[in-house]
């Protein structure tokens, strides 16, 4: 099962990718080299840390980056979404 690639994330090494019985959404790194480099730099990751299956959990994105109009059944990121290293506290 994929996990969050951010080393400081609570879901970095856990096999249980659920939070309060809600599914944790994972997003793959962009295939575009420039955007991939931006994500990697913002998350303090080395090139060796990123694989083709590496993902970032939804906790590393603010609400403004989610596209709720695309599908009511699945969470999607906007094309220009940028992650943050430290997720905001969840109540």
UniProtKB/TrEMBL annotation:
**Any coiled-coil regions, as ranges:** none
Q: Does the keyword NAD apply?
A: no
What are the protein's UniProt keywords? DNA-binding, Metal-binding, Zinc, Zinc-finger
The keyword GTP-binding is annotated on this UniProt entry: no
Specify the superkingdom: Eukaryota
Q: Please name one Pfam family that this protein belongs to.
A: THAP
The THAP-type domain is annotated at: 1-86
State the PANTHER family in the record: THAP DOMAIN-CONTAINING (PTHR46600), THAP DOMAIN-CONTAINING PROTEIN 10 (PTHR46600:SF11)
**Full protein name:** THAP-type domain-containing protein
What is the species listed in this Swiss-Prot or TrEMBL entry?
A: Molorchus minor
Question: Lineage of this protein's species?
Answer: Eukaryota, Metazoa, Ecdysozoa, Arthropoda, Hexapoda
């Amino acid at each position: 099962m994929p996990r969050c690639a951010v080393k400081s994330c609570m879901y970095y090494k856990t096999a249980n990718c659920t939070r309060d019985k809600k599914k944790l959404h994972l997003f793959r790194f962009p295939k575009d080299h420039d955007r991939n480099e931006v994500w990697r730099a913002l998350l303090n990751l080395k090139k060796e840390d990123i694989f083709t299956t590496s993902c970032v959990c939804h906790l590393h994105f603010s609400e403004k980056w989610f596209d709720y109009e695309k599908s009511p059944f699945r969470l999607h990121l906007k094309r220009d979404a940028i992650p943050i290293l430290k997720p905001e506290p969840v109540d």
